[in-house]
Each structure stands twice: as C-alpha cells, then as structure tokens.
Amino acid sequence: MALAFRLLPGVLSALVLALVIGGALGGVLSVAGHIDMAALLGDAYVLGILRFTVWQAFLSAALSVVLAIPVARALVRRQRFPGRALLIRLLGLPMVIPTIVGVLGLVAVYGRSGAINDLLAMAGTGARLDIYGLGGILIAHVFFNMPFATRLLLQGWAGIPGESFRLASQLGMTGGQIFRLIEWPMLRQIAPGVAGLVFLICFTSFSIVLVLGGGPPNATLEVAIYQALRFDFDLARVVAFGVLQVGLCALIVGAGHRLARSVPVELGLARDMPRPDLAAPAGRIGDAAAIAFAALMVLLPLAAIVASGVSGDAWGAATRAPLWFAALRSLAVGLCAGLLSCLIGAGLVLTARELGVRYRRPGLATAIELGGSLILVVPPFVIGAGLFILVQPVADVFAIGLVFVVIVNALMGLPFALRILMPPAMEVHERHLRLADGLGITGLTRLRLVDWPLLRRPLGLALALTTALSLGDFGVIALFGTRHNQTLPYLLYQQMGSYRMADAATTALILVGLCLALFIVIERGIGGRGHDRA
After folding, report:
1. CATH architecture label of 323-534
2. What are the tens digits of pLDDT across the range 183-203?
C-alpha cells in the first residue's frame, strides 16, 4: 500500500501524458489508415518541404555556431571591459522573449522599411535588403540561437583548466597556436552537440518561418501542417507531414543526446585565465569586432521594439479594448499552462525520486524523466493537429481552442520544469530521507517542514519560466485562434499581417512587459528571497 501511494503522483501524471499524446497520435493514425503514405511521401511537394526544412535548419545551425565561436572566445579572452556582465545577461534575452516579438524587432531593423534599408538609401547605394525568404529566416534564427550557442560554448571554455593557459604563457605560444592546441580540441567535443541542439530548434521552427518565409516555397514541416489543416483541411498532407516530423525529430533527438553529452553544466565565466595572446593588435581588433557584432545583433532589434512601442499613437493603441481582452486571455492561458505543467512535472518528480533514492532504482527514475520529455520527439504541432482531428467531428474545435492551447503549452513547458525540479528534489531526498523517516515526518508535515523550504526556489523558477513561455507562445494559438479568442501573440501576428506596424509595436511592448513582469512576480513570490538552497 505504501509503495502504491508513493507511486501515485507519477502514475497520474503519466496517465495524463498518455491520454493527451496517445489521443493526439491516435487521431493522426485514425486518418492515416485511409491514406496512401508511400505516394504522399514520394510527392514532389512533400519532398520539397522536407528538403527546405532540413536545409534551413542546417544553415541556421552552422551560422549560429560559427558566429558564436569568435564571440565566446572574445568574451573569454577579454575578462574585463565596460559592460561585459551586462552583455552576457543580454545574450540571454533572445531565449526568453516571445518569438513573434523578436521577429517584429528584426523587421523593424532589416525589413523593407527598416533602419538598415534607410541607411542604405541615405548612402545612395541603391541596394535593398529583403528580410522575407530564406535570408530573413537565417537572420532570425541567428538572432535567437547565436546567443544561446555562445552561452553553451562559454561553458566549454570554462572547462579548460587554467593551467593550460599558464603553460601556454610560459612557452610563449601565439594566439593561433593556443587556438589550435588548446581551444580547438575542446570545440571539436562541444560544437557538434551545440550545433545539434540548435538544429533541432530550427528544424521545428514555426513563427519565424510563417512570418518571414515569404510563402509556400519556404515552408517548413510545421508551417505545412498548419497550412494543410487550417486553410486546406487536407488531412492526408497533415498526416504525412506529421509522420515525417515525428520520425525525424526522434532521430535528431537521439543523435543530439549523444552529441551533447560532453557539454559541462557549470558556467565558470569569471575564471581568470592568464593568456599570452591578449596584447596582439590583430587579436584585440578581432575580439572587439566580435563583441561589437554580438552587441549590435542583440541590441538593435530589442531597441527597435522599445522605440517603436513608445512612439506614435502608443497611448491610443494601448487603450483599445481588444488589446486588453487579448492580454487577459494570454494571462489566463499562461497561468493555467504553467500550473498544469508544474503539476504534471511535480508528480513525475515525486515518483522518480522515490524510485531513485528510496528504492535504489535510478534507471526507472531516468526513464520517468525521459518520458516526461517525450514532447521533444512529438512536436506540439503534431499534438495540436491530432487533437484537432480527434475532436473536430464531435465539437466546435475553435470554441474550445484555448483549452487545447493550455494543454499543449503545458506539455511544451514540461521538459523545462523537469530539468529545473528534478536535480534539487533528488538532492533533498538523498539528504533528508533517513532523518525524516526516523522522526516519523511524513505526508503534508514533511512537505511543509522539509520539502517546501528547500524546493520553493526551483519551483518558483519552473512556474515562472513555463508561464512566461506559454504566455508568449504563438505556435499552438495559430492553429486554434480566431478573432473571438485572440491572445496577444495572435493579435500581434494579425496586426503585422495587415501592416498595422504601429499597433503591432505597442502590442509587442506590452507582451514583453507582461512576460517579464509575470516571470519576476512568480519567481519572487513563490521562491522568496534569502532562502537557502538544498
């Protein structure tokens, strides 16, 4: 009886996952039986979509990692310059701001009426930059993923022993020799894993490709699923694209898991590494150029968002009722999805730590964590499409669309919640299990006296992150959204599509403000201040 009670939270969470993911896949497979999959997968259009999806993801990953290497190296080599700590923090912003907002900032900088084209016109060059198409997709993916790759590569540099650079200094090695003999071996281990992670992110890209792709020739699998289901209601193509997406994502996740094993966890950015190559003029110029590039790449779109949002008739746009109704819906969707994600995650964590610590079955605990990350293999658009197919014959899908948005967004946030909650929960259990059992502290009393004080900080972070990600997500709402259930990301997309860029800028600024404010309030409200970590 005790064993069954301890496993109950994980069983309930696993049941929810099985019902949602299994039901969605069942909806897809229920249609697949009436479709000639071989003919569809041999179709030139389907193969063209697949080729473009892989090609743009490959180019995006390659550019992001290649550009991140000199930026990370410059930040490691130049430990002391004004604004270094601020720049490293800014490199984290593209990872947390809503994708649709970042795209708006990129359009304001690189678009046909953007700042870059204005400068080219003033210079009289006659050249024009067109952000729509493959070029725009690559720019957007570099904006979002180059900072991410930089931070992962910084972890790799932090793992190089300081003695290696002291020895290089004693031997009088040049910058090229240091890179070839010390840094390149590390990059050969780290860079493939980083590139694999970025490739997976770009492979499943939706918002960027939908807004900047420029039409069907530049569609990815997720965009093709959206168009086939929302506009054409072509279930055959939905199933074909869904099967391809799930199969390829499984292969990519498996390969990426193997490649990413050697990435260190600790982020030792402040390590002082004495190097003999800091005074060389070429190195100083190159490092300055890399740092300036990273700063401009991140700051220009963010500054454009703020400048556009506060200029013009910002007050008039901000006082319109549809915007605030959309804001309230976004808050409701974000909070519900964040709570559901953390509840499912907490159930899996509670059972995994019992199996891993009390019953000494670490393999089962790892299997539970991997099962909770199944959403990485089954992309959210495939789940959304499956739920759409399953429910459409018996109910008005768009009338209850926000319910599906909450469910799918909760599953999208589950891997983040598990990664945040699992390590500290395991550590708390290992430290206090025997003492709590010996004192007879169980149930709610143990939760109040032992677990809550030590786990409230990671729980606050998990809830804040999953809520903010759901609030700013545009992917699933694009499938189920209508003018009657608009959220802020959906409203922003509609404003951009109708070229109401002033209104879109105000909406984007409010969306970013809500995401950041909600993140801070939840993290500090639940996590508190000054509580000791486990």
Report:
1. Orthogonal Bundle (1.10)
2. 888 888 888 888 888 888 898
Extract the tokens encoding 489: 């990301």
Q: In b/e form, how buried is each residue of 333-372, taking b as 16+ CB within 10 angstroms?
A: bbbbbbbbbbbbbbbbbbbbbbbbbeeeeeebbeebbebb
Residue 389's nearest CA partner among 53, 33, 14, 12 is 33
- Tell me what the mean pLDDT of segment 25-40 comes to: 72
Distance in angstroms (rounded) separating the CA atoms of residues 388 and 401: 9
For 483-509, b/e burial (b = at least 16 CB within 10 A) is eebbbbbbbbbbbbeeeebbbbbbbbb
Quick check: 372 pLDDT over 50?
A: yes
Residue 500 φ/ψ region, left for φ over 0, alpha for ψ in the -120 to 50 degree band, beta for the rest: beta
Beta-carbon count within 10 A of 404 CB? 22
Angle in degrees, 0-180, between the axes of helices 281-310 and 501-527, rounded to the nearest 10: 100
Distance CA 359, CA 156 (A): 35
Would you state the structure tokens that stand for residue 268, as one six-digit string?
């030792």
What is the rounded distance in angstroms from the CA atom of residue 514 to the CA atom of residue 349? 29
DSSP 8-state secondary structure symbol assigned to residue 500: -
Whether the CB-CB separation of 302 and 105 falls below 8 Å is answered with yes
Contacts of 323 (CB under 8 A, 6+ apart): 317, 488, 491, 506, 507, 510
Q: Where is pLDDT greater, at 59 or 260?
A: 59
Nearest CA among 236, 177, 208 for reference residue 103: 208
Contacts of 319 (CB under 8 A, 6+ apart): none
Amino acid at the residue 175: G
Give the whole-angstrom CA distance, residue 512 versus residue 470. Answer: 12
In this prediction, residue 339 carries a pLDDT of 95
Residue 234 to residues 32, 37, 38, 88, 385, Cα–Cα distance (Å)? 12, 14, 17, 46, 11
pLDDT at 511 over 70: yes
Which two structure tokens, joined as six digits, stand for 385?
């499409």
Tell which wins on pLDDT, 282 or 324: 324
| Closest of 467, 449, 480, 472 to residue 519, by C-alpha | 467
Same CATH topology for 37-96+141-304 and 323-534: the answer is: yes
Q: What was the pLDDT predicted at 270?
A: 42
407-455 tens-digit pLDDT:
999 998 898 888 888 888 877 777 776 666 666 666 667 767 677 777 7
Q: Is the dihedral of CA 486, 489, 492, 497 positive or negative?
A: negative
| CATH 1.10.10.10 assigned to 37-96+141-304 | no
Residue among 424, 437, 433, 426 at smallest CA distance from 531: 424
Q: Where are the domains of the chain?
A: 37-96+141-304, 323-534
Instruction: Compute the Cα dihedral for 380, 385, 388, 390 and give only its sign.
Output: negative
- Quote the pTM value: 0.80
Q: Which of 420, 447, 262, 449 is nearest to 349 (CA)?
A: 420
Per-residue pLDDT at 344: 93
Residues 6+ apart with CB under 8 A from 91: 147, 150, 151, 294, 298
